[in-house]
Amino acid sequence: LRDSGTASFKNGAITGADNGIEIGGNFAAGTFESIDITSPTDSGIEVTGAVTAAMDDIDVDGGDYGMLVSSSGSGSIDLSNIDFDSQNTAGIYYVKDLGGDLSGTITNSAGAAYKYGSQTAKDVSFSGVTVSGNNVGLETAGSGDITITDSTFANTANDVKITGTSEIDFIEGTVDPTKVDVTGTGGFERM
Q: What's the CA gap between 87 and 186, in Å, rounded?
């Protein structure tokens, strides 16, 4: 039970931790601004429980994930001006649904920039994101529909990969329709 206030973290550097920022549980709340996370072992940010937070200007260089929403993660995080670079598995991996606004850049992930697991079911929309040099721009095995607006996708293997039932609408911006792979029952529409 929180008595009062919201924790605020600003202007920091975290190097070599298992997880740069780990947040969750008992409706954890906080604001995070201008934090550089370098070479985390696992994740730059890990959501481990119920959360309500805002993060601005968070840079993550390396690690398996820029942000991991674990199977116990829930709630909402507004992410603005993110810069995730060179993750081994995914820029952001949503094992379960997490709400919140999202803007920024994910580059050079060996896997997907955005990965939605099979337990994701909520509809999602985001705009103003740049994903380039990743193996896959957005990969979903879930069932929630995704709307992408005014974004740039320029990736090596696939811009979009759909293995679940999600329907993806891409409105304005740059995407290569020849780099869309649909093996599930979902679909992709460039509007």
A: 27
Nearest to 180 by CA among 158, 165, 148: 158
Q: Per residue in 89-140, pLDDT tens? A: 999 999 999 999 988 999 999 999 999 999 999 999 988 889 999 999 999 9
Q: What is the Cα–Cα distance from 44 to 39, expressed in whole angstroms?
A: 8
Q: Using CA atoms, how far apart are residues 100 and 2, in angstroms rounded to an integer?
A: 21
Q: What's the rounded Cα separation, in Å, for the pair 57 and 69?
A: 19
Rounded mean pLDDT of the chain? 94
Which amino acid, one-letter code, is at 34? S
pLDDT in tens, 5-55: 688 999 999 999 999 999 998 878 899 999 999 999 999 999 999 999 999
Residues contacting 44, CB < 8 A, separation 6+ = 19, 20, 21, 37, 58, 60, 63, 65, 66, 67, 84
